[in-house]
Design a protein that fits this description.
Helices cover 23% and strands 40% of the residues. By secondary structure, the chain is an alpha+beta fold.
Length: 357
Amino acid sequence: MIPAKASAFPGRPGCGRALIFVIVALLTCHGLTQMPSAFGESGLPTEEQLRAAANQALVKMDEYNDPDKSFKMNYPANWEVGKPESQFIFQAHTLAGTVDVRVMEESMPFTLEDFTKLISTEFGGKPNYVKVSQENVQLHKELPACKIVYNVTESSGLKEQQVLVLSAKNGRGYLVLFTTLQDWSARFASVFEKITDSIDLPQEDELSPAKLAAIKMTQYKNTEFSFKMDYPVNWEVGKPEPPNFLAVEYKPRAATVTALAVPFSGTSEEFTNSMIAAVAAPNRLKTSQVNVQIQGVPACKIGYSTDTHGVKVEQLVVLAVKNGHGYGVSFTTPAAWSSALAGVFEKMTESIDLSGK
C-alpha cells in the first residue's frame, strides 16, 4: 500500500467521534507498478487476463471475520492473503492489486447520516476527486448503507474509480472502499458487488427493543446528599467533575448522566429559574418544560437541544429541591439515539429518591 493511500484517511484528533474505517482497496497503483513483467511490455493486464481474473474471482469465496469489530466479509478465494502492514488487519491481492482492511477508532459513536457526512467531506474536499453518484442501499439483513462513487485522477496521470460503501451499527462507522482503474471498473463491478453483498455486521443492535426491555438496573446511593438512583448495570460510573457528585456513562452511545447538589433554601420554582439562567447559551435551545412529581417531591423536567461541532445533542434535565439542597440530574446523548434511550432515562428518573432513607 503506497503512502498516499495510507494517508488518505488520517486520524482526526479532537473531533470527538468514534470512528471505525473498514477500508478495502482493490487494484491500487502500488500494485500496478510492482508486477509489470507479468503482463507484457505495457505493464498492465490484457483484456483477456482481466476477463479471466474477474470471472475466476466469482467462482469461490472465502470469509474474513473480525468478531472484535463485529465485521464479516467474503472475498475471492483465489486472491492471495498476505501479511498486512502494521496499520492494517487484513490484506489480500490479485493481478496487480491489493485488498486491505483497516480499522481506526476515536471517541464518539456514529450514525450513518453523520458518518456519511464526514466521509463525503473527507473525499469530496480533494481537488482530484469528482463525485459520480451517491445512493442509499441495503447490505446483509437489510442494514442501511450509502454507496458513493468517485472518479480520481492521480498525479501520475492514472485514472482510478473508487466505490465507497458506508454503514453504521452500534455506534461504529464502517467504510468499505474499492479502488480500480476507471477502464477496469465495469469488468470488476460484479466482483465488487458480490463482496458488498456479503458484508455483515452481526452484533445485535444494543438499542433494540428486546435488549432495552431486558436491561438490568443497579442502585447508586450517596448518603452525603441523601440521593439514590437506579442505573443500567452495563453503564460505567466515572469520576464526576465538580459541582457534580455523580457521572454515569454509556460509552457505546456517548450517553452521560450526571447529578449535582448545591445548598439552596428557596422554592423549586426559584431553583428552576436559576438553573435555566445558568445554562443559557446561544447554541442551546430549550425544547420542553413540564412540572412533575418524583416520589412525592415537586420537580421540573426541561429538554434542551444543542449543536456540538455539527452533531445535534439532546439533554433532559430534572430539577428538584429537598433537604436544603437543589438537585439537578442531567441525561445527555446524541439526538440520533435519544428516542431509543428515552425509556432508560425515564426508568432512571422514576427511581430518584431524595428521602434520605
